[in-house]
Amino acid sequence: MTEIKTTTCYMCACRCGIRVHVDEKDGRAVVRYIEGNPEHPLNKGVICAKGASGLMKQLSPARLTRPLLRKPGSERGAGEFQPISWEQAFSILENRLKAIRSNDPKKFALFTGRDQMQALTGLFARQFGTPNYAAHGGFCSVNMAAGMIYTIGGSFWEFGGPDLERAKLFVMLGTAEDHHSNPLKIAISRFKRAGGRFVSVNPVRTGYSAIADEWVPIRPGTDGALLLALVHELIAQGLYDREFVARYTNGGHLVIADPHSPSHGLLATDEEDAEPENPAQPQNKLWWDRHSGRPVLSHTPQADPSLFGDFRLADGTRVQPAFQLLAERVRDLTPEWAEPITGIPAATIRRLAHEMGVTARDEKIELPIAWTDCWGNEHQTVTGNPVAFHAMRGLAAHSNGFHTVRTLAILMSLLGTIDRPGGFRHKAPFPRAIPPSAKTPTGPEGVQPNTPLGGLALGWPGSPEDLFVDAQGEPVRVDKGFSWEYPLSVHGLMHTVITNAWRGDPYPIDTLMIFMANMAWNSTMNTVEVRRMLNDRGADGEYKIPFVAVCDAFQSEMTAFADLVLPDTTYLERHDVMSLLDRPISEFDGPMDSVRVPVVPPLGECKPFQEVLIELGGRLQLPAFTNKDGSRKYRDYPDFIVRHETEPGSGIGFLAGWRGTDGKKALRGEPNPEQWARYAENNCVFKHELPPSYRYMRNWNRGYMEWAQRVRLRRWGEPILVHLYSEVLQRFRLAAQGKWPGRRPPERLAKRIETYFDPLPFYFSPLEHQLTDLERYPLTAITQRPMAMYHSWDSQNAWLRQIHTHNYLFINPRTARASGIEDGAWLWVESPWGRVRCMGRHSEAVEPGTVWTWNAIGKQPGAWALAPDANEARKGFLLNHLITDELPGRISNSDPVTGQAGWYDVRVRIYAAEEAGAWPQFRTLTKVSA
Amino acid sequence: MRPAWSVILLTTLIGAGQGLYLALAAADAFGEAPARFFVAGAAVSLVLLAGGLVASFFHLGHPERAWRSAAMWRTSWLSREVIVLPLFMAAVFAWAVAHWLQMKTLWFNVVAVMLAIALFVCTGMIYACLKFLQEWHTPLTPLNYTLLGCASGLTAAAAMAAWLHPPLAPAYAAAALAAGALAYLARLAALARNARLRPKSTPATAIGVKHPRIAQIAQGAMGGSFNTREFFHGRPREVVRAARWAFLALVFPLPALFLVSGFPIPAFLLQFAGLLAERWYFFAEARHPQNLYYQAIA
Amino acid sequence: MAAIPDADKGFGMTQLALVIDLNVCVGCHACVTSCKQWNHSGEAGPLSDANPYGAEPSGTFFNRVQTYEVGEFPKTETVHFPKSCLHCEEPPCVPVCPTGASYKRAEDGIVLVDYDKCIGCKYCSWACPYGARELDEQQKVMKKCTLCVDRIYDGKLPEAERKPACVLACPTSARIFGDIHDPDSQAARAIREQGGYALMPEWGTQPANHYLPRRKTSIKLHPDELQREDNPLKVDGKLPRPAAGEPALDDVTSW
Ligand SMILES: Nc1nc2c(c(=O)[nH]1)N[C@H]1C(S)=C(S)[C@@H](COP(=O)(O)OP(=O)(O)OC[C@H]3O[C@@H](n4cnc5c(=O)[nH]c(N)nc54)[C@H](O)[C@@H]3O)O[C@H]1N2
Ligand SMILES: Nc1nc2c(c(=O)[nH]1)N[C@H]1C(S)=C(S)[C@@H](COP(=O)(O)OP(=O)(O)OC[C@H]3O[C@@H](n4cnc5c(=O)[nH]c(N)nc54)[C@H](O)[C@@H]3O)O[C@H]1N2
Ligand code: SF4
Ligand code: SF4
Ligand code: SF4
Ligand code: SF4
Ligand code: SF4
Ligand SMILES: [Mo]
Q: What is the CATH number of the domain that holds C190?
């Protein structure tokens, strides 16, 4: 008898709805067929290659089924384990963590990979009291998040996206796949069929770029120059949306232009907004009204700001509109300037700018939707300029990515496409304030024994005062997040944790807990060294990182380095929530969240990590998980999800749907134990559609803001003006220049901060390029995600690995021939940090200065329960062996603003190899017996 | 195409069996020989035919269902071959029995000869009828199967005669030389034809994009598939060239030398080896248009 | 929706097929594994895999997505190219089959293999110019795309889901299913209106599956579109204005 159950896919982070056909076989439920759920708002019935192979994940021989303890006497990395009971596992953790918590909670570090439960892991860490918590965002795409959120109050992927239903021109930069996998495919296809024009900017033409109407090959790491030249051309030709810039950005705000003043570069204010709606975001900036020729409070009725000019305030202060400064910044950044940097002909850049500008101007959309802006003006229609953009790690994963992404956000704003039809649209809970109000503690006193952390582990600094540093200005977090090294590292820096902890800089830790991340392999830089560090001992014979616990569902390269392995369930065996407190599945038209429900029982003794945390929370008596009498508060994770409130009585919990005692409230309301059942009945999704008048212009939409305040998506309702000019960055620059009244950076970092905290976007070549002999290493090496493979998850999947069982280095034939490399031949790729032997493949679809390969296909022999001679290990290779985590001078290979890992900055040379076979090779892991 | 030993043995063995029978039949019709010789000859022919039949079973995924393959004789040359081969074997057997029993054999002979020729046609047409296998799609294919079969059968007959009935040996040797020469010429003609073939299918027609430069980058299965195993010989070009030289030497010139010098048995063995090489090459040489879809792994 | 053969139209009138739109296919392989999954899990499964966790893993699939590069840098087109049995109207694979295991259904034109009759002689695969058939190495019978006959006529499924698994899976809806002989079907219309073509037409196999070519959208800009009255630079006094002293008609004509 086949039963069909709905749940949410997790073969990747996209979270499509699926219907799982389950059969009874010998008294056991077995998965028989998985299909897209046609009633799910995200994927509307479609599924992807990974999702349709979920069946084989259940059958993977690499599944972990019991808690494992490293065999006494065996070394880390050997992967030799003995099974233990859950009780033993819990008591090991409990004893260890209790001691740490009562002593120095920051000695416990919890870092998580491609997970979707940061709301819970974050809560656990905060309750524990450690600042050393983050997910993978720092090495993933924090530049995309920070660059855009610090500019428009929202970003791509889960946070927002291109409105391809209505766009006429779509420009995609540096995207191979992205998190919004199926919806993006659905949308691009519809867009093309509706006659839209699709331009892809990418060094490589595969996947989406393949079906672009125009492929613009670009040299990696140079998009900033392209985007600045586009901004130049739009301004030079007058192709920007003046009304939008004037009203909805800070382009008309007056910037103090007095190099000697401590306020230089800050926005001039009037004291009039004495009682600001949001104290952190006073609405007291000034315009120079071009009608009256006087400074007025921004958004004064009837006034219209001058966007150009050089003025003096009554007190003699020299001021200039921010837009004037932007225009000055890009004055010489012409297409001709960008051509030799990007490799894109100036004529092409100019034409693209004109296409964008003219389409935005002449194809205006007008929807008969009345709305009211935050200043009380009533609008009869919503208008839009149908030019949409999308970008991802091609921009983000460079050490200059923050400014590149910010430039993109500015370009989008000049075209007047923010939260408007046909342009970029937010997804709830965005837009947020610039910056959002969540903050970390600001000093070591935020970390106290047996006490929850005095703030969030991750936040959004708005000024040096928000940094998480000690009195000397040195980091409190082990990853050095929110320190002067990477002030806006809003997602933390997972890629620095192992190295820093090993080195004891800023301090050693005791226990490192890794959930769902393969930090010994594909998600680490400097793989070979990091693997050594994980197994390195100090003079006392103790491990430099004393205890490593790993929770994973499969035998990975990372689990081999664990002291304690916690076997997780798969996505078909557990409850999960995709919460508004984390990254929900919201779409443009309103908030949505969703859940997973188990469709088959856990294999062996597998236990969801959620249950592990709930159990530990109870055992450690963390306040949020404990009753007043000290007893455990939640039976299990499902119980926690429906009963937990962010604060007692807040009415805000992990799930937004069917709240309230009668289950009739949405977003906010009393806990309802029936929530799981309601979700299960509703395709595991809750969808709240906003009325049309709240769906657009949300940064400045009074109706939306009031609603968002009512449901507590936002605390404040002030408008969110686009930051063409970033006052936040200027505050840090002032500090570096010694002009800021508050905190100052340590001397060694002052120059760096001054350079990179430019309030206006600028282009610099990636840090690694600046430090590399570019003649010796003439090529840039990058990776792309294959659509049919998710990081390291799927090489144990019998179907998917047939599609990508090993990888090649793709090389433009001209480049290959110049190095004497035949199609299909073995070659060496060498970076300043190491070399790898792999096979090459000639491809006309890659820019000649770039070589690339699929991400995370290469494997350690024997890992993932593959045969030692599996292609992944003998023919496949990992580019990560060539990528460094630190640049000369011990600076992290990261964006100096956000700490985003500079994956795609590595420079290489290639030469023919005499011998065949992938190199380096690592010891062969043996299969852990179940 | 990937040469399959089962098919190579099938076609060469039954070809020799048919040729041998035709040699015997000629002697029966136009000459003299003791029944003993005919019966022994038929026995050898049947052994060759049966050997081919057995080999063919190794080609099948489900030999136990082989009987089903007679069903589609209206359309399938393979089906026809499957019918004609046992019929022919039965006819040879009957003919031999008739000799054994000293009966009149004329009608037995007529039927068996017609079946032998039909079998040549069927076997040849199995390949020749596939029009997009341009190397095979020519009357030369059945002609070659027939002539090469006859040549090897006549050489076998010469060898048998030398052993069992010497008076016939020179005539058989002469006939073998003649058939060998003809077969050789026809085979050379096929080689020459195929060397000039221009594949009608190109990457452009395969995917329907008109452009002179189309390169496959991925075939969607990196570990290979049925399509990469069945339709590619997977041998370096030198091996293919060596096979051609081998069969060009072994199919006629060398056996001819031995025949002329009066050593028909080594002549037959050499020639049969040559035929194995010829058949291997026949398959290896054929470029299946499906291969356009399986050019590169990535 | 599945075009269930209409008795009035008479047999032989219906030809079900897939029309694959290369204009939107992004090469995601969803059609590959969803096909594998459906046909593996269904009545006729499994579709075997050899060495699933070892060297050179290889299995039976009815549908593969391949990639081609057309042209030279920078004018390169990357073409993702899904291919399954094309259900030829003159299928060369059918008449050669000695057992009758391969057949073309009169009622809807689907070319099928009867696994119970197939002897695994592979001859039909030789006779298919497209490499659309694969011998299952475990079951030793010839397999190929069935157009999901076991889905499209399944009355238990809601009508919208009576479509091949790959069609339902495809995120770009690049796979259009229907009766290409019915001029009103979406498939026939797509072929007609978007230049649908057949693969290797030189062999007269008349594949029922068709492919739709890439189409390009471009924007034509006229120079005067950049010099417009509503240029915002004007508002801010930034459009260059000629100086008063520069020559003008006023200097030479009095009217
Ligand atoms: N199927 C699948 N989907 C996934 C994942 C997966 O592993 N598999 N991973 C998920 C995760 S964690 C993430 S972060 C997202 C990432 O989604 P993407 O950002 O789309 O993923 P990448 O493969 O990193 O794509 C980077 C793209 O940028 C290009 N590129 C590199 N450098 C530059 C540059 O300097 N300029 C420009 N313009 N382009 C450049 C590369 O050629 C590539 O096409 O995907 C998610 N979705
Ligand atoms: N060279 C290069 N390196 C990169 C990138 C790149 O583009 N180029 N991209 C980077 C990016 S953006 C990211 S996000 C990272 C991703 O890197 P990671 O976050 O490390 O992701 P994976 O290695 O795929 O997966 C981590 C682990 O999750 C496990 N897992 C899968 N399902 C489950 C489950 O249900 N429960 C548990 N507990 N574990 C499970 C897998 O077995 C695997 O061991 O890689 C980074 N590394
Ligand atoms: S995109 Fe694919 S793998 Fe990701 S959630 Fe959707 S169906 Fe699952
Ligand atoms: S599922 Fe659709 S888009 Fe993906 S490869 Fe197949 S046909 Fe192309
Ligand atoms: S594509 Fe091949 S298998 Fe399918 S009908 Fe045509 S010839 Fe036969
Ligand atoms: S393999 Fe099966 S279907 Fe193909 S020709 Fe032989 S018997 Fe027919
Ligand atoms: S129609 Fe069915 S059998 Fe054919 S390719 Fe699609 S899913 Fe596979
Ligand atoms: Mo990522």
A: 3.30.70.20
